[in-house]
Amino acid sequence: MRILSLNNVTKTFGGLVAVAGVSCGVDRGAVVGLIGPNGAGKTTVFNMITGSTRPDDGHIFFAGHSIRGLRPHRIVALGIARTFQTIRLFPGLSVLENVLSGCHCRMRSGLVSSLLRLPGQRREERLVIERAMAELEFVGLAGLWRSTAGSLAYGDQRRLEIARALATEPRLLILDEPAGGMNEQETQELAALVGSIRDRDVTIMLIEHDMGFVMPVCDQLLVMENGILIAQGTPQEIQNNPKVVEAYLGLDEDA
Ligand SMILES: Nc1ncnc2c1ncn2[C@@H]1O[C@H](COP(=O)(O)OP(=O)(O)O)[C@@H](O)[C@H]1O
Ligand SMILES: [Mg+2]
């Protein structure tokens, strides 16, 4: 079953066509990698799916909803969460508070009960904190819940962003270069974490340059170059696709 479909999605910045008529689909339960050289338009595709950039043209459907042009918080509420290529945490807040900032959209109690601190509100707060701690446990950061986010090692900050995204209970998780700045061991742990997120019936899309990470972790790959989707298929199909080797994978051999 398709959970996400992009149909002819296009975005231009001034004269630059960053994303040119991209059409593709993502099956529920898949791990899909989006690869391509720097500037290919990968992050712009993620920004359009998550509502931070409005497409100029085309359609985006998620779980039966047309989500094109919806505000980011509406899209989170429908079940899409993300992390960012450049980490976006609240560095002065604690690790736990950062995860709680993601839980916000799932809280039912409104402002009035929050001000009056009604019993239902307190119960909900307790549940939200338990849930946030469970996500920290899941990514291996529970022991650091009191630390300020800015004091964490780089790889831990990336995992904290994932915990915050998971706390919104997404059906689709979008990771923009999650292994960026990680050492080899952290990258291996991330691969295992992606597997256990998928085991929770969360569909995953990720951008990553490290082919040693992408190939074993992804079921499907989408390849972009100059705003165009030049290929899609299994990692094996992509590895043997001459267009892709020329545009992207061959770069390593030349270097
Ligand atoms: N907000 C923006 N304003 C102007 N140009 C942008 C903006 N965002 C991205 N671009 C340009 O669009 C192209 C695609 O960028 P991006 O989607 O970030 O590529 P990738 O993630 O594949 O490296 C690049 O040429 C980039 O400079
Ligand atoms: Mg990018």
CATH architecture of the largest domain: 3-Layer(aba) Sandwich
Topology order in helix (H) and strand (E) letters: EEEHEEHEHHHHEHEHEEHHH
Strand content: 15-25%
Distance between the termini: 40 Å
Spell out which ligands are present.
adenosine-5'-diphosphate, magnesium ion
Using only C-alpha atoms, the radius of gyration works out to 19 Å
Q: What is the top-level CATH class of the largest domain?
A: Alpha Beta
Strand order of the largest sheet: 6-7-8-3-9-10
Shape descriptor reads globular
Helix content: 40-55%
Summing up helix and strand content along with how strands pair, one would put the structural category as: alpha/beta
Work out the count of structural domains.
Answer: 2
Largest sheet: 6 strands, mixed
- What is the CATH topology classification name of the largest domain? Rossmann fold
Total strands: the figure is 10
- Average pLDDT figure: 91
